[in-house]
Design brief:
The chain has 218 residues and is mainly α. It has nine helices and no strands.
């Protein structure tokens, strides 16, 4: 006859059963906290605080290799805090992280003229903000091509799209346009910081493109 042990006691009223162990929780947290959204978003005070909180949570969960602080309730509190951090970070930086993964529209939603973009670029360059200067100079190049009717105005056009289409109409500066698009993508989407030389090169390309006549133009 098989002995039957005492039945497991029923959980006390109001107690939430915790089935997840500390090790699976720690690995789940580490996997989530290693995501690109925590690494690639542009730094600002909010992100700095969120990263600090995420790192502290990871430290605590790493320490909980066998026993969660405070038992099951302690682990539950840690997981709830982690969930809050994940939700806040993804809502705050999710779009930026996706943008960083793939080049987007060069002009965005701006309606500025090429001259206005050039003035903005010059102002950024004087302030030493060369990343912003490079972005505005590429926008000036693309807007100039649209103003000259070399390119049809179109939402969602990337720098590469504009460079290839513009190069077909302006073969003399086709390579320059591709270089400008590459430098723009590296700076804006690739995380490579621009410098005064990068800004100067895009200014030269903008001047050359503006002075080049389209194939077949009178």
């Amino acid at each position: 006859m098989i002995p039957v042990g005492p039945a497991d006691p029923a959980p006390a009223p109001g107690v939430v059963p915790i089935d997840i162990g500390a090790d699976p929780a720690r690995e789940l947290a580490r996997e989530e906290l290693s995501g690109r959204v925590y690494q690639e978003a542009a730094p600002d005070p909010v992100q700095t605080i969120l990263r600090w909180v995420a790192q502290r949570l990871e430290d605590v969960l790493r320490a909980a290799s066998g026993i969660a602080p405070g038992g099951g309730w302690g682990l539950l509190v840690l997981l709830v805090l982690l969930l809050v951090v994940v939700v806040v970070v993804r809502r705050r930086f999710g779009r930026l992280a996706r943008t960083a993964a793939a080049p987007g529209a060069v002009l965005g939603g701006t309606e500025r003229t090429a001259a206005e973009h050039r003035r903005l670029a010059d102002g950024h360059a004087r302030a030493g903000a060369f990343d912003d200067a490079v972005r505005e100079r590429m926008r000036a190049i693309v807007r100039s091509l649209e103003e000259r009717t070399i390119l049809e105005p179109r939402q969602g056009r990337t720098a590469g799209d504009a460079a290839r289409a513009g190069g077909r109409a302006l073969p003399a500066v086709a390579d320059d346009l591709l270089e400008a698009a590459r430098r723009f993508d590296e700076t804006v989407y690739g995380g490579r910081a621009a410098d005064a030389g990068t800004d100067a090169r895009l200014r030269e390309i903008d001047t050359a493109v503006s002075a080049t006549r389209a194939v077949g133009a009178a």
